[in-house]
Design a protein that fits this description.
This protein is of the alpha/beta class and about 650 residues long. The protein folds into three domains: about 290 residues, Rossmann fold; about 150 residues, Isoleucyl-tRNA Synthetase, Domain 1 (Orthogonal Bundle); about 90 residues, Nucleic acid-binding proteins (OB fold (Dihydrolipoamide Acetyltransferase, E2P), Beta Barrel), CATH 2.40.50. The chain is built from 22 helices and 24 strands. The strands form seven sheets. Strands 3-2-1-12-13-7 form a six-stranded parallel beta sheet, sandwiched between helices. Strands 18-17-16-19-22 form a five-stranded antiparallel beta sheet. The longest helix is centred in the middle third of the chain and has 31 residues. About 5% of the residues have low confidence. The structure holds 5'-O-[(L-methionyl)-sulphamoyl]adenosine. The site of 5'-O-[(L-methionyl)-sulphamoyl]adenosine (MSP) has 19 residues, from strand 1, helix 1, helix 7 and strand 12. 5'-O-[(L-methionyl)-sulphamoyl]adenosine binds next to strand 1, helix 1, helix 7 and strand 12.
């Protein structure tokens, strides 16, 4: 198997600024790049901008500047957008780069010399938006399906690429390589297109109509059709035909695109490669389209999500996680704030964040933050190793959401492992210190695997986790190798205290609730006197019951009954201290991260010198105590009524 891995995004047109759609393709390419680095491959990613053609000329004219100046501006916006999302392409290509122009002309000449380009007359329906001719059959109600405008009939003399010559070859090639184009629905779409006779491709534009393009090497009166120019970026960026990178990375290439540009990539590009005597690319991977709140993104709707917004409002790691987890590769996906918040709180703040901070807080408390010398429990260790294999199988197939589901299966297993093993109970019994060491050791080794597995998708959070776990070095391939060991973290490794990775997103509604004026009791007719032991609704309404999230807990000195809790009651209230008589039933560690029900407007009282503001509710049955908790993760401060 080839040890090199080359992944490409489409090169984006410079007539629009980067948005969620471009960002998604570029993020998943970066995830693939990072994963293959982890897997020890020589991984390389290319992106860039597509700068020739009518559309750019029109956009530049609208701004009153020359096309090159305009292209420079927008290209820079794309180049600067990617680091904001922790995307680190190895190479950024522009089709106005002299190196690219040279390679395009070289390939044109080669294809021309072998008789695959001819001069002819052509009349057809041309869409200026798409920069291509349409057949009648491709139009919907006589209009371009993308731009919904009627194409213009153009008749002119041009150069044509004999694409038809390679039709049978391409059909056979796709059939012989069933995952050449994936997922399958897009392979079928290409095959169905190939059932009709393939027309030759018009690959030139006369300079009388367009000058902003690459001149044909065999006829300076023409420039190259923008798609023939653009597709070649995938090899020109590697320094084709002699470059060292070309030898290294071609044809181990994974092209990633959305369904809008399936035809040029599924038909034009393989036939161009065949004609130029270049090996076919390895795979074409096609994803669906993003909408925002169910609608197409558009400036007029004001719903365009830019990379800046993605990084600043949603957070780099979280937004990368969200798009990978939310979209089933190949199908369309929808981005919504409510859905994002839900995923963030459930998957990141709760499942992953709590597991991490809880485990490290316990390790700190029981073993001074040092990985103990102990065995590991086989079940959770085996599950971790199995998830690594599963992840390694799913990710190269671009099944991002399934790969993440597998990792979350491991996270959930680790959370259950804590509940089942009750480290806080083991800690109370010095005779069970060895068992406690096994449990804590198993947990931190699992955390290490989780951190390494989430790195391709959430490099920032993973780096924090690895740092807190005391993992050494920053060589991704080494991390992955180590994660396959039974115990990647050596006994004696000093860990941190587990900072909060993903503080919860609080719901807007609570802030409003806090500001809302208290309703006054109805005036007018006095209410009937209540029967004894019955309270009126107004009596009940005077109680301020709310959900509180326990963020810290410790036993009050010199008692075995009282516990001091820091409880988050959401905005604007924030944290408050509550002293509760629960210490005989619950360990302090066990309380952290729990949601409890708080009587928030109880008169403050001093207990053992500590002011307690409020009380928590619990069911007490003789010796047994059971805390009242909401049955889903409602945010702190949520009112109980
Ligand atoms: N310049 C050509 C590509 C040439 S590649 C040799 C082009 N550029 S583009 O700017 O229009 O980019 C299209 C690509 O941007 C899509 O294939 C996809 O990767 C991404 N997306 C743009 N909008 C998108 C969505 N709404 N949803 C998902 N991806 C989309 O075509």
């Amino acid at each position: 198997m080839s040890r090199s891995y080359y992944v490409t995004t489409p090169i984006y047109y410079v007539n629009a600024e980067p948005h969620l759609g471009h960002a998604y393709t570029t993020i998943i390419c970066d995830v693939l790049r990072r994963f293959h680095l982890l897997a020890g491959l020589d991984s390389y990613m290319q992106t860039g901008t597509d700068e020739h053609g009518d559309k750019v000329v029109q956009a530049a004219e609208a701004k009153g500047i020359p096309p090159k100046e305009y292209a420079d501006r927008i290209s820079l916006k794309f180049r600067e957008a990617w680091p904001k999302l922790a995307i680190e392409p190895d190479y950024f290509i522009r089709t106005t780069d002299p190196g690219h122009v040279h390679v395009v002309q070289g390939i044109l000449q080669k294809v021309y010399d072998q008789g695959d380009i001819y001069f002819g007359q052509y009349g057809g329906l041309y869409c200026f938006g798409c920069e291509r001719f349409y057949t009648e059959k491709e139009l919907i109600d006589g209009k371009c399906p993308d731009h919904l405008t009627e194409p213009t009939y153009i008749e002119e003399e041009n150069y044509f690429f004999r694409m038809s010559r390679y039709q049978d070859w391409l059909i056979d090639y796709i059939k012989d390589h069933p995952d050449y184009i994936r997922p399958e629905r897009y392979k079928n779409e290409v095959l169905s297109f190939l059932r009709e006779p393939l027309e030759d491709l018009c690959i030139s534009r006369p300079k009388t109509r367009l000058t902003w393009g690459i001149e044909l090497p065999f006829d300076p009166k023409f420039v190259t059709y923008v798609w023939f120019d653009a597709l070649i970026n995938y090899v020109s960026g590697l320094g084709y035909p002699d470059g060292e990178k070309y030898q290294r990375y071609w044809p181990s290439v994974q092209h990633v695109i959305a369904k809008d540009i399936l035809k040029p990539h599924g038909i034009f590009w393989p036939t161009m490669l065949k004609s130029a005597g270049i090996e076919p690319y390895r795979h074409l991977n096609v994803h669906g389209y993003w909408t925002v709140d169910g609608q197409k993104m558009s400036k007029s709707l004001g719903n365009v999500i830019t990379p800046d917004l993605m990084a600043d409002k949603f957070g780099i790691d979280a937004v990368r996680y969200y798009v990978c987890r939310e979209m089933v590769f190949g199908l369309d996906g929808d981005f919504s704030q409510a859905n994002f918040d839900e995923r963030f709180n459930a998957d990141l703040a709760n499942d992953l964040g709590n597991l991490f901070s809880r485990s490290l807080a316990m390790l700190d408390k029981y073993f001074g933050g040092v990985v103990p010398e102990a065995e590991t429990d086989q079940d959770l260790t085996d599950k971790g190793l199995a998830v690594m294999d599963e992840f390694g199988r799913l990710l190269p197939e671009l099944a991002f959401h399934q790969a993440l589901l597998a990792v979350w299966g491991l996270i959930s297993a680790a959370n259950h492992y804590i509940v089942d093993n009750e480290p806080w109970v083991l800690a109370k019994d010095s005779a069970r210190k060895d068992r406690l060491a096994v449990v804590m050791n198993t947990l931190v080794q699992t955390l290490y695997r989780v951190a390494v597995l989430v790195w391709p998708v959430m490099p920032g959070a993973a780096a924090k986790m690895l740092d807190q776990l005391g993992a050494e070095g920053d060589d991704a391939a080494r991390w992955f190798e180590r994660a396959r060991d039974e115990e990647p973290l050596a006994a004696g490794t000093k860990t941190g205290r587990g900072e909060a990775l993903f503080p919860r997103i609080e719901k807007q509604a609570k802030a409003k609730k806090a500001k809302a004026p208290q309703k006054k009791a109805k005036k007018g007719k006095p209410e009937a006197a209540p029967a004894e032991n019955i309270i009126t609704f107004d009596d009940f309404r005077r109680l301020d019951l709310a959900v509180g999230l326990v963020t810290a807990a410790e036993l009050v000195e010199n008692t075995d009954r009282l516990m001091k809790l820091s409880v988050d009651l959401g905005e604007p209230e924030g944290q408050r201290t509550i002293v509760a008589g629960i210490a005989r039933h619950y360990a302090a560690d066990e309380m952290i991260g729990r949601r409890i029900v708080v009587v928030a407007n109880l008169q403050p009282a001093k207990l053992k010198g500590i002011e307690s503001r409020g009380m928590l509710l619990a069911a007490v049955d003789g010796d047994r105590m059971s805390l009242i908790t909401p049955d889903s993760d409602v945010g702190p401060g949520t009112k109980i009524s």
